[in-house]
Amino acid sequence: MFESLSDRLGGVFDRLTRQGALTEDDVTAAMREVRQALLDADVSLPVVRSFVRAVTAKATGAAVTKSITPGQQVVKIVHDELIRTLQGDDAPETLQIDTPPAPILMVGLQGSGKTTTTAKLAKRLTEREKKRVLMASLDTNRPAAMEQLAILGQQVGVDTLPIVPGENAVQIAKRARQQASFGGYDVYMLDTAGRLHVDDVLMDEVQAVRDVVNPRETLLVVDGLTGQDAVNVATEFDAKVGVSGVVLTRMDGDGRGGAALSMRQITGKPIRFVGLGEKMDALESFDAERVAGRILG
Ligand code: GDP
């Protein structure tokens, strides 16, 4: 197991004399530990560097009150800065899906958890926000993926667009839009095809669908355990199709979730939800407090 940042810092400050404020030496020693804790949590190196710089500036000279130890003081400064970075300050709190039928485009690589997340989110919107949701799979290359969405739809009680063999992604998207309008749905979710790597064919297809439906939200689903790769995937998708928010899956795994920090810092995109397991209820709103706690250990 990883050592928590509090434990690491406890060790550092035990060796230092207690003063009224954090000195530069205190902070330098502490930042070595902060840096290592972030790297252990799989935060990417450039993000670690800029984060440590920001925290150093805030911590140097900070007053230490009698009630807390210098170590606790540094942990608090790091924690607050993590929250600030993870939350950002520009993103709207909720999905922008007020005007029916609102299209949500789900994009991402194959295996990221895109189809599962589509069904989880449809269930959530249905149950918590009382939306009428229609789901459609655009993965014409993988009939099994289309079937999978239909099965998950049945499981969560959400309608899926009937499968018509031979249609391409744009045709399915248009049919979904039509069905959503005529059927009185509030939201229609398009589960786009995934591939093992970002490639031009995939991007061209997603762009064509985007241009037809003009999505209110384009949610990128990425595997939260893939660290820097997740950030690279997000950067590529955003450049090509424009991403409005990110869903990090497999945050139930062993990792410390540092990808969330790198993602927010590098792409500037809000993390909307986190996947916490295979079950259909295992999707939660992104909670910066919780992720910060986990990164710090
Ligand atoms: P897609 O190819 O991107 O559509 O991926 P799928 O939705 O088919 O998911 C691939 C596998 O990952 C499935 O076995 C899912 O149950 C699993 N999965 C998806 N999200 C999560 C998650 O948040 N946590 C865990 N542990 N497994 C997940």
TrEMBL record:
Keywords, in A-Z order: Cytoplasm, GTP-binding, Hydrolase, Nucleotide-binding, Ribonucleoprotein, RNA-binding, Signal recognition particle
Reactions that this protein is recorded to catalyse: GTP + H2O = GDP + phosphate + H(+)
A GO molecular-function annotation: GTP binding
Signal peptide span: none
Binding site for GTP: 108-115, 191-195, 249-252
Residue stretches making up the SRP54-type proteins GTP-binding domain: 270-283
Localization (cell): Cell inner membrane; Cytoplasm
One GO location term (cellular component): plasma membrane
The EC number(s) this enzyme carries: 3.6.5.4
Record flagged with keyword RNA-binding: yes
Topology in the lipid bilayer: Peripheral membrane protein
Enzyme class: hydrolase
GO process annotations (BP): SRP-dependent cotranslational protein targeting to membrane
Assembly information from the UniProt record: Part of the signal recognition particle protein translocation system, which is composed of SRP and FtsY. SRP is a ribonucleoprotein composed of Ffh and a 4.5S RNA molecule.
Family: Belongs to the GTP-binding SRP family. SRP54 subfamily.
Function: Involved in targeting and insertion of nascent membrane proteins into the cytoplasmic membrane. Binds to the hydrophobic signal sequence of the ribosome-nascent chain (RNC) as it emerges from the ribosomes. The SRP-RNC complex is then targeted to the cytoplasmic membrane where it interacts with the SRP receptor FtsY. Interaction with FtsY leads to the transfer of the RNC complex to the Sec translocase for insertion into the membrane, the hydrolysis of GTP by both Ffh and FtsY, and the dissociation of the SRP-FtsY complex into the individual components.
Domain notes: Composed of three domains: the N-terminal N domain, which is responsible for interactions with the ribosome, the central G domain, which binds GTP, and the C-terminal M domain, which binds the RNA and the signal sequence of the RNC.
The protein's name: Signal recognition particle protein
Native species: Paracoccus alkenifer
Gene encoding the protein: ffh
Residues of the whole record sequence present: 1 to 297 of 498
